[in-house]
Amino acid sequence: MQNKYEINSKIDSYIERLSNSGIIKSFYPNAITKALDIPLTPTLERLNRLVEDEVLELKFEIRCHEGSHVIDILNDYSKYLDKEVYCIYCGEYVYIDMSNISPIYYIREEYKEYLKKKNKMNIERHKEIYLKELPITV
After folding, report:
1. Most CB contacts within 10 A, which of 20, 38, 48, 52?
2. pLDDT band at residue 116 using 50, 70 and 90 as cut-offs
3. Owning domain of residue 64
4. How many domains does the chain have?
């Protein structure tokens, strides 16, 4: 069994890789648990901490029961909860409860920019170290 520190480190590294990919903008918690083979509860705890630290932004997808189409993505789902919403994809009204509300985490642009700067500084630092260690012959 992995301890909390190992799990947090794995999650942080994975999110950093996702951020650096330039392709991934958001992800579901289950994607993290499957990719890293870790339990959901500590994953959610860590992701929510990263929301507090402004690395991630938590939003919620409202999905249609029938076709699993995304009806809306929002910060607060309370205005939809226990109400019927029209799905333009299936042409029916859908009753919204917790079974069709999913958390989705977005990687904040500020964090992506921070990583770009950090990576650039690391490259420059490694280049300086490498150049200092080169044997010079006259």
Report:
1. 38
2. confident
3. 4-133
4. 1
What is the layout of strands, in order, in the sheet containing 26-27? 26-27, 101-107, 56-63, 70-74
Bridge-based pairing of strands 92-95 and 101-107 is: unpaired
CATH number for the domain that contains residue 96: 1.10.10
Query: Is residue 122 assigned to a domain?
Result: yes
* Contact criterion met (CB below 8 Å) for 72 and 80: yes
- Judge whether 138 lies within some domain: no
Q: Rounded to two decimals, what is the model's pTM?
A: 0.82
Give yes or no for residue 73 having a pLDDT over 70: yes
pLDDT band, very low/low/confident/very high, at 126 (cuts 50, 70, 90): low
Please give the full DSSP string across 109-128, using - where no structure is assigned.
Answer: HHHHHHHHHHHHHHHHHHHH
User: Which amino acid is located at 127 in the chain?
Assistant: K
